[in-house]
Amino acid sequence: MSYNLLKGKRGLIFGALDENSIAWKTAERAHEEGATFVLTNAPVALRMGTIKTLAEKTNSEVIPADATNVEDLQDLIEKSQEILGGKLDFVLHSIGMSINVRKGKHYTDQNYNWTQKGLDVSALSFHKLMQTLYKKDAMNEWGSIVALTYMAAQRVFPDYNDMADNKAYLESVARSFGYFFGKDKKVRVNTISQSPTPTSAGQGVKGFTGFMNYAEKMSPLGNATALECADYTLTLFSDFTKKVTLQNLYHDGGFSNMGVSQEIVEAMED
Ligand SMILES: NC(=O)c1ccc[n+]([C@@H]2O[C@H](COP(=O)([O-])OP(=O)(O)OC[C@H]3O[C@@H](n4cnc5c(N)ncnc54)[C@H](O)[C@@H]3O)[C@@H](O)[C@H]2O)c1
């Protein structure tokens, strides 16, 4: 069903790797809601993934960019405005990667080169992206910038490893840069803290299935899916949320405010 929520809006979407990606679902839904946008991902991901299918389906162009490389970002933002015919109304940062997680390196035994690389990709890239948008004055007034995060930024999830620290940094950057974007450009900046979701990045976390099932049993509404996350993201790109900014918004079926649920109590009783 379409509400034409984003009719006439132009955007830039990072992070669609395959059809499970949150960014993929967001692109599909944004297209249905009348937006035009450019898709981007790291060159290596473009080779591995299936983004062409998405580009065809949504009538959009794909521009490769490594989100840790400021020159790539400058080029991407210039080209996107040319292609779309004006400044941007929305930007989605849907990027995360930890080499320590991927290689099974424990939090108490970090390879710091990998830690730094993961921080750059998952968190600093958001600052680099916003600084480039800001300097190029590439956002329209009342535009909206969203990044995806996870509750391990606030609470301990041991297997989330150094991604927990990356997400804490990411959420802080959203507030700090969001202040200047709000004051100077009337642009809002928020993070969405999403339920565990079976995507390529999500499934890389050790014990992911147990993690997901636990969250499902703890949440009164159950886990939020990637498609539901896409829909929530669109509301933040729409004109109905103009004064929502500097927020970390939980999209998790209620998990973040739970202590314990009946199902968990029953599972623990012997
Ligand atoms: N899946 C979950 O359980 C979950 C939960 C909460 C938040 N998130 C967050 O959602 C976001 C999207 O992840 P996803 O679950 O859709 O997984 P995904 O693996 O589909 O997406 C991650 C994307 O990051 C991209 N990326 C990695 N390095 C990059 C670089 N240098 N430059 C540009 N792009 C790069 C990948 O190519 C990929 O498209 C991430 O920020 C993730 O941390 C995921």
Automatic annotation (TrEMBL):
One annotated GO molecular function is: enoyl-[acyl-carrier-protein] reductase (NADH) activity
User: What is a biological process (GO) this protein takes part in?
Assistant: fatty acid biosynthetic process
Q: Which InterPro entries match?
A: Enoyl-ACP_Rdtase_NADH, NAD(P)-bd_dom_sf, SDR_fam
Pathway(s) of this molecule: Lipid metabolism; fatty acid biosynthesis
The UniProt catalytic activity note for this protein reads:
a 2,3-saturated acyl-[ACP] + NAD(+) = a (2E)-enoyl-[ACP] + NADH + H(+)
Identify the keywords attached in UniProt to this record, alphabetized: Fatty acid biosynthesis, Fatty acid metabolism, Lipid biosynthesis, Lipid metabolism, NAD, Oxidoreductase
- Enzyme Commission numbers on file: 1.3.1.9
What is the active site of this protein? 150, 160
Pfam families this protein is in?
adh_short_C2
Q: Which family does it belong to?
A: Belongs to the short-chain dehydrogenases/reductases (SDR) family. FabI subfamily.
What is the protein's given name? Enoyl-[acyl-carrier-protein] reductase [NADH]
